[in-house]
Multifunctional conjugation protein TraI
Amino acid sequence: MLAQDRPVMGIVSGQGGASGQRERVAELTLMAREQGRDVHIGGR
């Protein structure tokens, strides 16, 4: 599947400790930026 065929928005949610979540978000942010996507992170 080509990157341009993928949805423009992804929602990531999960459970776990804060440090694990930070690592996961950092990895996903890097991956998204490598694909040329804008990254916006929001909290509750």
Remarks:
- The chain has a mean pLDDT of 76.
